[in-house]
Amino acid sequence: MEAPDDLQRAIEAALFAAESPLSLADLATVIGIDTDLRPALAKLESDYAGRGINLVERGGRWHFETSADLAHILRRTREDPRKLSRAAIETLAIIAYHEPVSRAEIESIRGVQISKGTLDVLMEAGWVRPAGRREAPGRPLTFATTRGFLDHFGLQSRRDLPGIDDLRAAGLLDPVDIALEQLEVETIADEA
Question: Angle, to 10 degrees, between the axis of helix 38-48 and the axis of helix 6-17?
Fold first, then answer.
């Protein structure tokens, strides 16, 4: 294995010391260099592949994280501060799949009102943020997911969220929903 060059060492040091993931521009500023960092990052990424920690890029930001196959070791000592309620999980899923989305749209999709506390819990967790106001009567506030959401769930972007086929294959869809969907498909076929 060849010794890393000074640029790779500087990137490695900056990423280890960083409190949060860094973009290419942030890295260049921290290191104080105006060079394309991608080749050095690619080399570091390959050097760390298969080790206890990996260099990963998510949402255009780079950081080190524990290898997925070793995460169970750390889970034993880590305490989860609070479990999310079913309403919070449903709200988070709606925001992730439909963002930016307003409170009224979330309530319409869920079929019930959500309490202000539900959105507060998701914002405190760092997974949801206000995403501006919609150009509609009343100018409702909209919500979207954050980079923290992507990092926590190991996603590079929202495109990595599981689709309907993935959820069905994992057995996560309600059997009633599957039966209704199948009935709808059969009804359409019969009408044709």
Answer: 70
